[in-house]
Amino acid sequence: MRAWEIMSKPVVRVGPSTPVPDATALLVQYGFAALPVVDADQRVVGIFTEADALRASGTGGEGSRVAAYMTAPADVVSTETDVARIARQMLDDRRRCIPVVEDGVLVGVVSRRDVLRPLFRRDETVTADLRSLLATYLHRTSEWEVEVSDGVATVSGEFAGDAERNLIGILARTVPGVVRAEIRETASPATKGAVDEGQGG
């Protein structure tokens, strides 16, 4: 699973010249742990956290600008960064949220809640989402058995070839809650019967 699949957007952001009280008010209003700080080109130049807001308050910096108290440089990830890597980065660096960029431009934010949300989806819900996704792209879900157990998605049946099997695996891994996909080739009853008759003759 990649960052673009779980990130929150649109992003509430501030600029380096934003007054500290205004940025702090946004943190309180939205319940965020941090706000990305971007320049005129929407490139991340820092991050303004709750700790930064407290530091500004404790040092009489309420009349200052965000640039004076923001944490810089800010850690960022790309839209294609694996979620497991983001989780490790959050734990190692004690980050509660990380900005997501594409071509250097801010496009989203991943919070700890975003990382955790897919892990606690019921298997039945994930299975239904996977069936719906396969039906949308391939229109053939009635021919396959689709099951998700503990985050492992299994799609069994007959497939048109390696390309179709690979596509199903790719699609399955995009569903929130799927941690691994297994694609199993099984003969249909009609095919199996034809093979058995041929062998019996």
TrEMBL record:
The keyword Nucleus does not apply. It comes from Amycolatopsis alkalitolerans. Signal peptide: none annotated. This is CBS domain-containing protein. It comes from the Bacteria. Residues 7-63, 70-125 form the CBS domain. Keywords: CBS domain. The lineage of its organism: Bacteria, Bacillati, Actinomycetota, Actinomycetes, Pseudonocardiales. Pfam families: BON, CBS. InterPro entries: BON_dom, CBS_dom, CBS_dom_sf, Diverse_CBS-Domain. Coiled coil: none annotated.
